[in-house]
Design a protein that fits this description.
Oligomer: single chain
Strand order of the largest sheet: 1-3-2
Order of helices and strands: HEHHEEHHHHHHH
Largest sheet: 3 strands, antiparallel
Protein name: GntR family transcriptional regulator
Organism: Anoxybacterium hadale
CATH superfamily of the largest domain: GntR ligand-binding domain-like
């Protein structure tokens, strides 16, 4: 299992509870309750709540604290549509700037991702998946576009539903990442763009169906 800080772990757990409906819209997140449940100090819980607020999962109210925000699924759909266009472009632009050192790191990430699938650790897989994307996107020579792609990802992290609700999605995701890395090795930027767009369309089509069922 890969290492997560206490704050990252609490953030993931609370976010999962919000996405899966275990924490309802309007429900308070009480720091003392979270510290007791996960046996941690208040500091990582506060850090996790701050991150949840940043990405719209909770809102802070004076003298009350954090309350779960109602999920705006229409807004999430719009973000998803933007991601299907922006991320393939970022991936394409990055290809000429990816060296053998990064390729070796990406191969290592793929090996770890395969291991997490075998162990059934979806949280670890999700983090490795994001690292894989971010390492590539960071080589895009247009920093504002990369920043936009990263921000959109963070604001649509409800998309992790596809990993827990859709049969075989992890396996399909892994195969798509293998194809992506091979196209990078071949220095085929157009093929990279095509693969990433297909990867996004396949995943997001399933996600939108899940959102429609929840709406």
């Amino acid at each position: 299992m890969i290492y997560l800080t206490k704050a990252e772990y609490i953030y993931q757990m609370l976010k999962d509870d919000i996405i899966d409906g275990n924490l309802k819209a309007g429900e308070r997140i009480v720091i003392a309750d979270v510290t007791a449940k996960y046996k941690v100090s208040p500091m990582p819980v506060r850090e996790a709540i701050t991150k949840l607020e940043k990405y719209g999962y909770v809102q802070m109210e004076p003298h009350i604290g954090a309350r779960v925000t109602a999920m705006d699924f229409n807004k999430i759909k719009e973000i998803i549509l933007l991601r299907t266009e922006i991320e393939p472009l970022v991936a394409k632009l990055a290809v000429p700037h990816i060296d053998d050192v990064l390729i070796e790191k990406l191969e290592g990430l793929l090996s770890e991702m395969k291991k997490q699938i075998e162990e059934g650790d979806k949280i670890a897989y999700e983090k490795l998946n994001k690292d894989f994307h971010n390492m590539i996107y960071a080589r895009n020579p247009y920093p504002y576009i990369s920043e936009l792609a990263t921000e959109l990802w963070s604001r649509s992290e409800v998309s992790k539903l596809i990993f827990s609700k859709v049969n075989d999605r992890l396996q399909n995701s892994f195969k798509e990442h293998q194809l992506w890395l091979q196209a990078i090795k071949d220095r085929d930027a157009e093929e990279v763009q095509r693969i990433v767009r297909n990867h996004k369309v396949n995943a997001f089509k399933e996600l939108i169906e899940l959102i429609d069922n929840k709406s």
